[in-house]
Design the sequence.
């Protein structure tokens, strides 16, 4: 993974010193909240319902055990003993004191981390496939491109006050595990006919109140042009993106209102002007960053692990966990695994300090000191030996981390909602917990199969409800929490925005509604192999509407 | 009351700011609204500056680069960053060499970004920012992860052999 050099260390240290001085001015009253707000936002500090919230950047979701242990230390020392993984591969702490935040940032800097640009109308943390560098289906590890973009976008003087926030995701597989097409810029690493690596560029995707799937703006961009092309897109957006209405300010609206061809022509003109300039990436510079992401020293192992097969045959619970949470790896004898932070009745993505330390220990011992956070709010060990899976499983069970539900109905994405968030219109976490409890039976979950439930507590869609196979949006209807259901959304390579099925449900009805939807799917599917999404795409919304809204109501 | 800063030092503002109607004083250096300037680029006998609102495009000025001595770009609020990109286009694409002045909601935390995008003067009304600049406070840090339209040549970072996008401010 990327390691700081003197330059990076100097930068982060200067930034911490600067923020410490600014916080002192705020605490002393010299800076008003109005004057402090733009400063704190550029440093990841939000003011939430009950307290300040600090969001820490985890670039492309990759971190090592030392960093994870520091997060545990922060949770314990400055927070209430836990943290929360976000849908952009970051982690946030909900209860820090403002006066402690400079110390937290200094602790983070000591392990090469920071909270810069995790909020505000700037280029946010660059995300990537959580199986990057491990997945069997990728053309390359995309993270060096993400790292180059991270550096270029860090305190870019021109792009810190954009019309709205700006999110970039990078993948390198035809199977999109990063919801790339719901980003402002989505990049897919691919090879051209000459075998050179380059990037397919998408623009204008996003969720929020006007969800849109990104459009392809360039089928193959030379690697050397990565920064020039992104800078051209950002410049056009910064100059022309709408600023009259924050809900129409994302680049998706600009692309939509301008028209893709016209927008593309504007970007192309700016790109042609700057492409041979200082932003051009020499191959050797790309290689220098790529070297940080060199594969670890994998052993040569048999494709099938006898230790694993043996354990699978003897232990049904372990067998179930391997079916759901273990994923194919590019190297024989290895696997990636999902540590689901979604035990029955738990708040999705919450992880205690103790669990962070357990995960750090496992990463250090079994996964070349590397772990990941996924946008689905789980932790990932990317490179474990199949032989080690039984031992890892035992540790996970001991610490309540062995939920065998990755990709199943209870592997729910949920935003913090009205329990924490100042923008929320309804609670999300209790809905997730209720669904989790209703479907706790693992045989039933496995029978239902792949099903992504995503819950947002307001129209800003941090819980990605538009991309949920079943999406749930919490609204406030005359003082009552009401949950609107969408069906058929997807954040994968066949990205789609879910369709609203009808009137919303009260808090005490929504879990029943989900169960009704699931039962209709089970009736409608042609076989156990046909997933919920496939069934929905085949039969459409009608049977679900009939089940959810019986006829007498329609009159 | 606004204070004009150049190179972070307070200086007298010798320019007369006119709206769309006010008569042009003979021989004075005047700043005109964009539309009024385009209406008759030769109406000013002294030096001429142009004020560009945040919502206005700079395209109309392209053919007048040599005639204009000052371009004032507006920040109606600190959060409106359009002027950063306009300054970059003026410097990088049109090779504009005159004064680019930041006006409006100019705040200390944006000063370095303005300088890095090509602004050469700041008309500041935000009192904490005036106080900070008068006190000589340095608003930014000196490690840059990307080239921009630096006014003065910026020394390359030593690390630049591997990462040509890095810059370091001379202190």
Sequence:
């Amino acid at each position: 993974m990327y390691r700081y050099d003197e330059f990076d260390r100097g930068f982060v240290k200067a930034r911490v010193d600067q923020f410490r001085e600014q916080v002192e001015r705020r605490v002393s009253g010299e800076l008003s909240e109005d004057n402090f707000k733009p400063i704190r936002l550029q440093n990841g500090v939000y003011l939430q319902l009950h307290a300040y919230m600090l969001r820490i950047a985890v670039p492309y979701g990759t971190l090592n055990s030392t960093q994870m242990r520091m997060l545990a230390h922060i949770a314990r020392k400055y927070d209430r003993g836990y943290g929360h993984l976000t849908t952009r591969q970051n982690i946030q702490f909900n209860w820090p004191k403002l006066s402690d935040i400079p110390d937290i940032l200094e602790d983070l800097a000591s392990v090469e981390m920071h909270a810069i640009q995790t909020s505000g109308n700037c280029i946010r943390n660059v995300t990537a496939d959580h199986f990057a560098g491990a997945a069997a289906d990728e053309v390359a590890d995309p993270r060096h491109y993400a790292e180059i973009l991270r550096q270029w976008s860090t305190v870019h003087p021109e792009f810190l006050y954009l019309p709205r926030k700006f999110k970039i995701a990078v993948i390198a597989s035809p199977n999109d595990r990063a919801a790339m097409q719901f980003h402002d810029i989505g990049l897919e690493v691919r090879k051209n006919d000459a075998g050179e690596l380059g990037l397919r560029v998408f623009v204008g995707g996003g969720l929020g109140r006007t969800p849109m799937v990104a459009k392809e703006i360039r089928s193959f961009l030379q690697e050397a042009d990565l920064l020039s092309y992104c800078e051209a897109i950002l410049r056009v957006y910064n100059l022309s993106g709408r600023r009259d209405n924050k809900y129409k300010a994302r680049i998706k609206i600009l692309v939509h209102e301008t028209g893709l061809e016209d927008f593309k022509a504007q970007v192309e003109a700016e790109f042609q002007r700057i492409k041979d300039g200082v932003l051009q990436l020499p191959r050797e510079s790309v290689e220098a960053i790529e070297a940080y992401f060199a594969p670890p020293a994998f052993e040569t192992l048999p494709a099938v692990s006898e230790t694993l097969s043996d354990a699978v045959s003897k232990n049904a619970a372990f067998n179930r966990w391997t079916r759901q949470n273990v994923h194919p790896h590019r190297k024989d004898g290895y696997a990636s695994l999902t540590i689901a932070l979604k035990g029955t009745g738990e708040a999705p993505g919450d992880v205690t300090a103790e669990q962070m330390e357990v995960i750090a220990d496992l990463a250090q011992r079994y996964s070349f000191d590397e772990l990941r956070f996924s946008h689905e709010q789980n932790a990932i060990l990317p490179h474990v030996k199949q032989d080690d899976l039984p031992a890892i499983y035992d540790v996970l069970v001991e610490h309540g981390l062995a939920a065998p539900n990755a990709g199943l109905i209870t592997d729910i994405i949920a935003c913090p909602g009205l329990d924490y968030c100042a923008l929320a219109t309804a609670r999300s976490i209790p809905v997730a917990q209720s669904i989790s409890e209703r479907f706790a039976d693992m045989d039933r979950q496995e029978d239902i199969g792949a099903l992504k439930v995503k819950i947002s507590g307001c129209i800003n869609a941090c819980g990605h409800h538009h991309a949920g196979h079943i999406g749930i949006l919490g609204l406030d209807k005359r003082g009552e929490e009401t949950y609107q259901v969408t069906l058929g959304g997807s954040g994968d390579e066949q990205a789609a925005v879910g369709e609203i099925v009808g009137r919303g449900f009260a808090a005490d009805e929504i879990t029943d509604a989900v169960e009704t939807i699931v039962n209709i799917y089970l009736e409608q599917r042609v076989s156990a192999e046909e997933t919920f999404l496939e069934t929905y795409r085949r039969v459409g919304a009608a049977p679900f509407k009939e089940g959810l809204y019986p006829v007498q109501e329609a009159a | 009351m606004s204070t004009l800063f150049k190179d972070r030092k307070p200086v007298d503002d010798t320019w007369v700011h006119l709206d769309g109607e006010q008569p042009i004083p003979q021989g004075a250096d005047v700043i005109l609204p964009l539309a009024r300037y385009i209406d008759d680029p030769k109406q000013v006998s002294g030096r001429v500056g142009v004020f560009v609102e945040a919502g206005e495009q700079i395209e109309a000025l392209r053919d007048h680069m040599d005639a204009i001595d000052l371009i004032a770009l507006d920040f109606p609020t600190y959060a409106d960053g359009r002027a950063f990109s306009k300054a970059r286009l003026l410097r990088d694409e049109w090779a504009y060499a005159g004064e680019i002045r930041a006006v409006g909601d100019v705040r200390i935390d944006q000063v370095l970004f303005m300088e890095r995008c090509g602004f050469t003067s700041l008309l500041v009304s935000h009192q904490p920012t005036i106080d900070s600049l008068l006190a000589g406070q340095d608003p930014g840090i000196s490690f840059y992860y990307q080239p921009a339209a630096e006014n003065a040549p910026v020394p390359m970072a030593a690390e630049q052999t591997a990462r040509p996008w890095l810059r370091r401010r001379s202190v």
Q: What stands out?
A: The two ends of chain A are 61 Å apart (CA to CA). Chain A has a mean pLDDT of 96.
